[in-house]
């Protein structure tokens, strides 16, 4: 509620409205009311597409989240950030230091923008080059499926 900028009461009222439209189903569990998406509703596909467009950050917002992180040579958004269900990661990042804690903080900023947990991998340039040369499955998935080049060149 409050994290989304609305009160719990407003969120519940809106959820009940969606339940009356049969977009959500309602279930009581102990003292809580659970609302679940009715996957069979004919508007679910359109609603999902709208929410993806409305909630996915643009490239500039993603790049802004990484501002100040040193040593980055490549940022590729894939997976949920590219509307690609088949990818195993949402970010491929190539950086001089793969354990740089600033990278995880930058990803957390993007998670706050999307409201979704994001999967990411950080490779050092030498490892990235070796895996690219070996046609590594992870890298093939990122580059052969839909992706967004945020910064750098894939080589």
State the main characteristics.
elongated; 6 helices; alpha+beta; 41% helix; 155 residues; four-stranded mixed sheet; two-stranded antiparallel sheet
Walk me through what this model shows.
With 155 residues, the protein is α+β, with helices and mostly antiparallel strands. The chain is 41% helix and 21% strand. The chain has 6 helices and 6 strands. It has helices at 8-20, 44-55, 59-65, 101-114, 125-133, 137-144, and strands spanning 24-29, 32-37, 72-77, 91-95, 120-123, 148-152. The strands form 2 sheets. It has a 4-stranded mixed sheet with strand order 5-4-3-6. Strands 1-2 form a two-stranded antiparallel ribbon. α4 links the parallel β4 (91-95) and β5. The longest helix is centred in the C-terminal third of the chain and has 14 residues, at 101-114. The termini are far apart.
Give a brief outline of the structure:
With 155 residues, the protein is an alpha+beta fold. It has helices at residues 8-20, 44-55, 59-65, 101-114, 125-133, 137-144; strands at residues 24-29, 32-37, 72-77, 91-95, 120-123, 148-152.
SSE blueprint:
Layout: H1 8-20, E1 24-29, E2 32-37, H2 44-55, H3 59-65, E3 72-77, E4 91-95, H4 101-114, E5 120-123, H5 125-133, H6 137-144, E6 148-152
Parallel strand pairs: 4-5
Antiparallel strand pairs: 1-2, 3-4, 3-6
Question: How far is the first residue's CA from the last residue's CA?
Answer: 44 Å
H and E string: HEEHHEEHEHHE
| Backbone structural class | alpha+beta
Q: In which range does the helix fraction lie?
A: 40-55%
- Major sheet size, sense and barrel closure: 4 strands, mixed
Strand order of the largest sheet: 5-4-3-6
Helix tally equals 6
| Rough outline | elongated
Low-pLDDT ranges: none
Q: Quick one: how many beta strands?
A: 6
Task: Supply Rg.
Answer: 19 Å
On the 0 to 100 scale, the average pLDDT is 92
Assembly state here? Answer: single chain
Task: Assess the beta-strand content as a share of residues.
Answer: 15-25%
């Amino acid at each position: 509620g409050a994290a989304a900028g609305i009160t719990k009461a407003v969120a519940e009222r809106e959820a009940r409205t969606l339940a009356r439209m049969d977009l959500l189903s309602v279930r009581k569990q102990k003292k809580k009311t659970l609302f679940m998406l009715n996957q069979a509703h004919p508007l679910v596909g359109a609603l999902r597409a709208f929410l993806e467009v409305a909630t996915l950050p643009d490239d500039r917002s993603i790049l802004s989240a990484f501002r100040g992180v040193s040593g980055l040579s490549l940022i590729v958004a894939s997976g949920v950030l590219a509307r690609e269900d088949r990818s195993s990661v949402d970010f491929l990042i190539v950086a001089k230091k793969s354990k740089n804690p600033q990278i995880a903080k930058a990803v957390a900023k993007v998670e706050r923008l999307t409201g979704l947990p994001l999967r990411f991998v950080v490779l050092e340039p030498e490892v990235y080059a070796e895996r690219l040369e070996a046609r590594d499955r992870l890298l093939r998935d990122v580059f052969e499926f839909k992706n967004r080049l945020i910064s750098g060149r894939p080589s």
